[in-house]
Amino acid sequence: MDETNLENKLNELVKEFGETADPQHRKLSKFAKQAQANRKKLEKSINSLQESLDYLRVCIKYQVFDLEATRRENKYLRKLIEDGNG
Predict the structure, then answer these.
(1) Is pLDDT above 60 for 20?
(2) Number of structural domains, the chain?
(3) Contact between 34 and 13 (Cβ < 8 Å)
(4) Which position has the higher pLDDT, 5 or 81?
(5) Is 11 in contact with 39 (CB distance < 8 Å)?
(6) pLDDT, tens digit, for every residue of 29-85?
(7) Which domain holds residue 9?
(8) Which residues contact 36 (CB under 8 A, 6 or more apart)?
(9) Which of 16, 42, 50, 79 pairs with 6 at a CA distance of 20 to 30 A?
(10) What is the distance between the alpha carbons of residues 58 and 70, in angstroms, rounded to a whole number?
């Protein structure tokens, strides 16, 4: 089942249970609404986590770039010092 199909089925259940007056059906309706709300919270959390991971990847790439640049600069400066002393 894909996400849109699942969401459509949940919406149908919420509508169906919302129309009845039976206490058991109301309880099921409540659970269906909670499941839908929990699913939305989970999606929001997953999206937030994905954004955080993307940001972390960018930060790590920048740190690697900076480290490589620092190594090149150190190598260049050591060569200048050696050439000056030699």
Answers:
(1) no
(2) 1
(3) no
(4) 81
(5) no
(6) 888 889 999 999 999 999 999 999 999 999 999 999 999 999 999 999 999 999 988
(7) 3-85
(8) 7, 10, 11, 14
(9) 50
(10) 18
What pTM did the predictor assign? 0.58
Going from the C-alpha of 63 to that of each of 13, 43, 68, 72, the distances in angstroms are 50, 30, 9, 14
- Alpha-carbon distance 56 to 17, whole Å? 44
Residue 78 and residue 12: Cα distance in Å, rounded? 72
**Measured CA distances, 27 to 20, 30, 32, 36, 47 (Å):** 11, 5, 9, 14, 30
Helix or strand (DSSP H, E) at 20: none
At position 8, the amino acid (one-letter code) is N
Helix (H, G, I), strand (E, B) or coil at 74: helix
Residues 6+ away with beta carbon under 8 Å from 28 = 13, 17
